[in-house]
Write a structure and sequence with these properties.
This protein is an alpha/beta fold and 251 residues long. The protein folds into two domains: 56 residues, Winged helix-like DNA-binding domain superfamily/Winged helix DNA-binding domain (Arc Repressor Mutant, subunit A, Orthogonal Bundle); 185 residues, Rossmann fold (3-Layer(aba) Sandwich). Helices cover 38% and strands 25% of the residues. The protein contains ten helices and 15 strands. It has a seven-stranded parallel beta sheet with strand order 6-5-4-9-12-14-15, with helices on both faces. Strands 1-3-2 form a three-stranded antiparallel beta sheet. β5, α7 and β6 form a beta-alpha-beta unit. α2 packs across α3 and α5 crosses α6. It is elongated and about 65 Å long. The termini are far apart. This is HTH deoR-type domain-containing protein. InterPro entries: Carb_Metab_HTH_regulators (IPR050313), DeoR-like_C (IPR014036), DeoR_HTH (IPR001034), NagB/RpiA_transferase-like (IPR037171), Tscrpt_reg_HTH_DeoR_CS (IPR018356), WH-like_DNA-bd_sf (IPR036388), WH_DNA-bd_sf (IPR036390). GO terms for molecular function: DNA binding; DNA-binding transcription factor activity. Keywords: DNA-binding, Repressor, Transcription, Transcription regulation.
């Protein structure tokens, strides 16, 4: 079998099963595991999968720069944001992550809602200027321009003084075994630190993030108590998450 044929077969299996194992692939193709690992490395280099120990998972496609992702507004994203906004109650302290779904979330917050929003996203903070009853606390640090959020030691130190009711987390990957992941090392630390400061973590997950993985792990799947998904998300994708004890909200 030619290399190109093996790669197509690998991607087909990955799309069908949600994961591939190097040992099983080597047996299927009758080649060495080293050969399979080389195929996986090359496919990962093209952004077509995410390598993990022993094999590979689907790669998240939610990795474009913020401006490009913001331009790709969708009905599904607005529905997820509306479901998240409906969870916020009067008087709560709410942490809102950066990202395009979070940008939509703040548009869905009623103007008469009285609450405190903590964010490390300058875009989220500015977007709440016209909400007269929302107090905004901005966490400072080094600006990570790809996602327009602050990261680093200063940001994590500031978070340690917060006790929030709910944290709306943005991710690029949600996978039952690989957990919650993102495409930047420092962002992963910041998101984990924010989750530790909230009574409940709610992940906002459009369909391109479900059953996918990125390079940097935020935490295990049970770091989230609730995941909001698109209404049409396949039951086969959400059942392993529910089996892990996570509440799935379909928006």
């Amino acid at each position: 079998m030619l290399t190109s044929q093996r790669k197509k077969a690998i991607l087909k299996t990955l799309g069908r099963d949600g994961q591939v194992l190097a040992k099983e692939l080597s047996e299927t193709f009758g080649v060495s595991e080293d050969t399979v690992r080389r195929d996986l490395r090359e496919l990962a280099g093209e952004g077509l999968l995410q390598r993990v120990h022993g094999g590979a998972l689907p790669a998240s496609t939610a990795v474009a720069p913020f401006a490009e992702r913001r331009a790709l507004e969708s009905t599904a994203k607005r529905a997820i944001a509306a479901a998240a906004a409906a969870m916020i109650e009067t008087g709560q302290v709410v942490i809102i992550d950066g990202g395009t779904t979070s940008a939509e979330l703040i548009r869905q917050i009623p103007h008469d809602l009285s609450a405190t929003v903590v964010t490390h996203s300058p875009s989220v903070a500015v977007g709440l200027v016209d909400h007269p009853l929302i107090e905004v606390i901005v966490i400072g640090g080094r600006l990570f321009k790809h996602s327009i959020v602050t990261v680093g030691a200063a940001a994590i130190e500031a978070m340690s003084h917060i006790q929030a009711d709910i944290y709306f987390m943005g991710v690029t990957g949600v996978h039952p075994s690989a957990g919650l992941s993102t495409g930047n090392f420092e962002e992963a630390f910041v998101k984990r630190a924010l989750a530790a400061r909230a009574a409940e973590t709610v992940v906002l997950a459009s369909s391109d993030k479900i059953n996918a993985a990125s390079q940097y792990v935020i935490g295990g799947i049970t770091l989230a108590q609730t995941i909001i998904v698109e209404r049409e998300t396949e039951l086969a994708l959400t059942k392993p998450l529910e089996d892990a004890g996570i509440t799935i909200v379909r928006a």
